[in-house]
Structure formats: C-alpha cells, structure tokens
Amino acid sequence: YEKRQWNMIITLVCDVLGGENNGTTIATMNLKRFLEKQKHTVKILCADQSKIGLENYFVVPNLNFGKVLNGYVSKVGISLAKPKEEILRQAFENSDIVHIMLPLTLAMKSVKVANEMNIPITAGFHMQAENFTSYVKLYNFKALNKVVYKFIYKHTYKYAKAIHYPTKFIKDIFEKNIKKSTNGYVISNGVNAYVQKWEVEKPEEFKDKIVILSIGRYAREKSQDTLLKAIKYSKYKDKIQLIFAGQGVKEKYYKKLAKKLPVPPIFNLYSRDEIIEVLNYADMYVHPADGELEGIACLEAITCGKLTIVSDSKLSATKDFAIDEKCIFKHRNPKHLASIIDYWIEHPEEKKIYEEKYANNSCYFNQEKCMKQMEEMLLKVINEEKEK
Hints:
This protein is an alpha/beta fold and 388 residues long. It has helices spanning 23-37, 67-76, 85-92, 105-116, 129-133, 142-155, 168-178, 224-233, 251-258, 272-281, 296-303, 334-346, 348-361, 367-387, and strands at 9-14, 41-46, 57-59, 97-100, 121-124, 162-165, 184-186, 210-215, 240-245, 266-268, 284-287, 308-311, 328-329.
C-alpha cells in the first residue's frame, strides 16, 4: 500500500508482555521488529517493569491482586497492567496510530485516551473467550463465553478501524457471537525465518526413545492432560519420552498424572533457540489444545517438517493445519489419541511422506509476508483517516 510516503509512528498497547514464552508477547515483538526494520518508529505501552528506562517503552504499574492472586498471575508468566492516564498520553503523543494487542484494562483505557487525542485505533485478536473462562472453571459455559465476546467488543473492538484476526476461524467465531460483521483482516502471525528444518541428533539419553513434543502454556484449554493420559493406552508407553515445553498453573496436576507413566515426562521452559532444536530432534509433535485461535507452536512444528497430530475441537484452529484425518484425534479422548500415535510409530515410511507434506505447507506461514500485510493494514487505516 504505497499511498503513505513517510514513516509511521505506532504505539502498541500490550496488556500482557513479558518474556517471549507466550503467543501474545511473541506476536508483539515480531511485529515490533519488522516495523522497525521498515524504518517505522514503534513505541510500546505495557506493564512489564523490566522495560522501565528502555527507549520507546512506556511502563504503567502492575495491578495488585493481593499476595495469593499475585503469585497465581506470576506463575502464569505474565504481568497485568494498571492504567495511568499521564503515561498513556506520553506514549500516544505524536503517534499516527494505536494498535491494541489484547482487550484488557490497559486497552480499554487506551481506547478512551486515543479517541480523545483523535488517534485512529486498530486491534489484534489474540484472546479467545475460553482463555479467560478456563481460569474460572467455566470453560464450556457457552453463555458466559458469549458475554465475554460482547463485552470486549463493546469496550475495545467496537472502536477499532480495523481488526487483525490470525485466522478466519476466530473471525467467524467472534462475529457470530457479537452478531456483527467487522472490518477484519485475516493475517497469520507467521513463523520466523530462524524456525527451519535441520538435522539434529537426539541427545544420548533419548537415543532409544520415541520423543513426542508438545508446546504450550499449562492450562485447561491447552489439554496437555489428554496427552498424558493417552500414553497409558499406548502399546509403546515404555519407549515414549514426552516433553512438555511451557509453564503454567496446571503444572502440579500434570506432574501428578505423569507419575503413572513408565518414562517420566520432561516439563521445561525452553529458550527460543532451544525449542527449535527440540522440535528438530523430536519424532512427532502433538498439539492437544481444545481452544486455540491460531497455534504458532503448531505452525513451527509444521515448518520443521514434524508429523503433527491435532485435536478436532470446534474451538481450535489447528485442526485446519492437519494433512488429513490420520493426524486428527477426537478432542479429550485419550484412547483415540493413543491409537493415532501408535499408528504413526508403526508406519515409519508413510510418516516420512507426511512429514514432507507438512514441510511443503510451511510457505503459507512466512512471517515476513505476514508482517508486510500487517504494515499495509496500518498504513491503509492511517491514510483513510487522514482523508476523512
């Protein structure tokens, strides 16, 4: 989109920002790096206290939930924001556009301030209602999920001149729940160029094991317990080494389930370089999530040419990435997942063919192309608002 001839000043509003170990933070930092590479100025408004003093970071205080809940939030690996209007106004000063990453407290206040300052707003859709309702143990309460979608539309997305949806799947769910069409752009968050298929030798301790990797926050909607239970039904349970890459509130529960398996699973939070190495030496990748609006970890596994097994959940976009039904299991059905895993262990030649098919699909998720589309969306909104 060539109409705009000068560089943008963009403020990204990040209610949740921390280490690059969750999808929203990774998406934020990838967008920031790409836009800066194109010579745009990117400012970040967040509550990550480790960013205080860094150039172009504007840091508000953290919300204080009390000792018990503060520990819970910390365990999830995030920090939540307490908006301070003067800091918001500093962040938005001279900005051409404000782009919101999540529709939480900082975003809602940012909408009001940006509107007062006459700055156009765009927003990304990086949170399913189920991400929230799972924490209050009402994950399957459809009426409450609908209330959440209507609430975030009313207080955030209603004011966005354009909405970025990582998949058509989540765009359709949101618009169905709010009963409105939106100015939506379906753009994958993409897979970084450093995520590639390459030959990696298994560590010595895994040489005689079938390594199955699963990446994701330890949470109800990610359904790692289904994979843990599935291995009990596998004919090869004595040879399967599970690796769960992540952290989260379900860790104690998962470790309790893990005690029932003959080979102790590994629970670990890996760096970005480390996880790509693990992906490349793993024998297969399982993404058991019930709720997933895109699933970057799943896309990274595909890019590395891994045999990728996903859930058929109606609330997960990842089922659309499967080659065919041989790579899809009935969600929350451990016995069916075990049968799928055993099938691929027993058919190594067919597995190689499927791995090649997965690797060939990776071109659709090229991050450079995806981020270029994001840049074009932002430019388009700015120009349309200038013309008005």
